[in-house]
């Protein structure tokens, strides 16, 4: 089979590389000349563990290629995937679908023979209907079906999520299109992956509902963490106690500074707007969005409080700025709220992240960027962990204490043990757990 993947961002590049690993001939298309030149030169524009080797191997095998020429890529393709961005539209919170609709117009002009047009981008309910209308209007002679096939890729583990997914959701009621999609995903039948066929609108809603539910779990445990701090309880024990219930599950029950990234912030907001427009508001989700926004802004105050109520004239060592480990994604990262608030309060901020500093430098002014974790610490008044990269999990606490002006740590990811930190002589502050003071 041969497919075209329109868009070489996170979803398009990972999906295209993984399909080529399945043995499919994949041509990835993008309008950005620099991005295609980098890909053709063997340079991967995003950080995702394992992706560089996967792309290199399939390019060498002749199954994966990159081009600026959409018409050439689409001509003769069995399926064309739309994997372009759907960022939040300025002013109203809706998903900006202009890139999706532009892609549909270009596909319409280029396709020949029966073609399955697959929406891989995260899109609101009804987008597939509009894509079909656009193509039908431009090419009334065309033989095609429009399918919804949402992605469920987690940054940092996307390749495994594609190769060994919990499920594959395919929205179409066309038996012909179903057969094409079954063939594309045939390798997953061998590991008995559930393939969920449903109506196109339902498939579009499944994606939003899934992300919104996970965001709600995160927000719920963050609120429980605040209650734990008030009552003197331990949120990690609470998480374990409720997570062992099979009806609840342990995933996404880790208290922290709030969710960020490319999906949850924009998808929760888009679903809120969709529901409001439909006259069926989702009050829970509206509250989740509001609480998460306020939480990220409040995290800076925790660091300020740990410094005695003011960071004016003080130095803060920040470990991690990406929204999560194993990615360089800075979209809606809590650090984008925390660091400016610290600088506004008069602090000098030194920061280090293993992968995200190049992106962060475009978004954060006034930060002293360092080459490693320990380089942030000499003379600092507090060290704050914002992203739980593995290399921050086993710091040499003796060295940290020696470098810091004061032995104070604010752990916004709960990766350190309170008793051990107290024994090491730290004033230690974390999330949803009683503080212990060392000396």
Structural class determined from secondary elements: alpha/beta
Range of strand content:
5-15%
CA distance, first residue to last residue: 66 Å
CATH superfamily of the largest domain: NAD(P)-binding Rossmann-like Domain
Description:
This protein has 439 residues and is an alpha/beta fold. It folds into 2 domains: 2-198, 3-Layer(aba) Sandwich (Rossmann fold); 199-439, Rossmann fold (3-Layer(aba) Sandwich). It has 17 helices and 15 strands. The protein has helices spanning 10-21, 33-40, 51-60, 70-74, 98-110, 127-138, 158-163, 175-184, 186-189, 200-231, 235-243, 264-277, 283-306, 335-344, 357-363, 397-403, 418-423, and strands spanning 2-6, 25-29, 64-67, 79-82, 115-119, 144-148, 168-171, 195-198, 315-319, 348-352, 367-369, 382-385, 408-411, 427-429, 436-437. It has a 7-stranded mixed sheet with strand order 11-10-9-12-13-14-15. Helix 16 (397-403) links the parallel strand 12 and strand 13 (408-411). Helix 10 (200-231) packs across helix 12 (264-277). The longest helix is centred in the middle third of the chain and has 32 residues, at 200-231. The termini are far apart. The model has no long low-confidence stretch (mean pLDDT 96).
